[in-house]
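Hey L., structure's done. Input below.
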Amino acid sequence: MFTLSMFHYLQILRTHLKELRYLAYIFGLGTTIMLMTPSCKPKVTLSTPTEGHILVGVDQELMSLMIQMEDIFERNYNHAQVDLQAFEETDLINTFLKDSLQYIVTSRDLNQKELDYFKKLEIVPRRYSLGTSALAFVVNKANLRDTALTYEKLLEFICIKPLSDFKQLVIENTRSGIAHVLLDKCQSENLPSHIYAKKSKSEVFDYVEAHPEAIGLVDWSALSDSDDPVAKKELSRVRLLAVSRPMDSVQQGFVLPYQYNLQDKIYPFTRDLYIISRSGRNDLGLGFASFMAGEIGQKILLKAGLLPKYQSERWIEIKSKNLDVVE
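Output:
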């Protein structure tokens, strides 16, 4: 028999069921919102060949050239950020070997000792040749008599002793790539006492300008860009020293490190430019390397007065037609 107490019990049960359904609805809605709402943790920026962030170590002597590369690369790829950090060559290679840098731009390839080191780590560095620069010898602008030296006489001056007309050789830094080239040329572990080192290229030009018996030595990229006001100013203070080819080579007279002499392999003091990676990833560093080795990057090298590794083809179409003679 249905009584009032049973009716009251059913009413209470219905109320509880409604509350349970409401709680289940709220819980389900909250779970859905949590799944759809992005996490409050910072997003990890993935590095691809055209976006992301990369730190590139650069030989100090090539810094002005690389700033141009970085600027144009970032203009082409708005989501790419390339940070350049300058090092002297010795410090650059050592930092790279210690895994503190994944990408470096340098004026030499890795030597066999460095390659063997990576082989022990089971790492195969990717090395991309970009172009060719040179060593430029400069003398005092007032020196009109001695503006050329034979290759052999210059090596004697660098490695053995001062000459009658030139007493000092001035370079930028003893840990620079230029110092490394001189040590290789002389097959020595130490530079002679008549080779002086300054803190910057500007100080090298200052010294040569003030000392007629000094020869300065800088990377050609510091002077090669005819549109660079800094390069034009420095070149106006000194005079380029012409050098002959070695005696066992076909002689071409005394030559300067101009682009066409680099192209024809006539100038004897050249060195190749590389970007080297120890990363195996397909990241922004690889994209930057591809950009520099590609058409735009190679045109930057060409415009800077250096010799690009790859030159784009130029097609010229000549259409013959009757020419009108104007009297």
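Confidence is low (pLDDT under 50) at residues 1-10, 22-27, 29-44. The first strand starts at residue 52 and ends at 59.

-- N.
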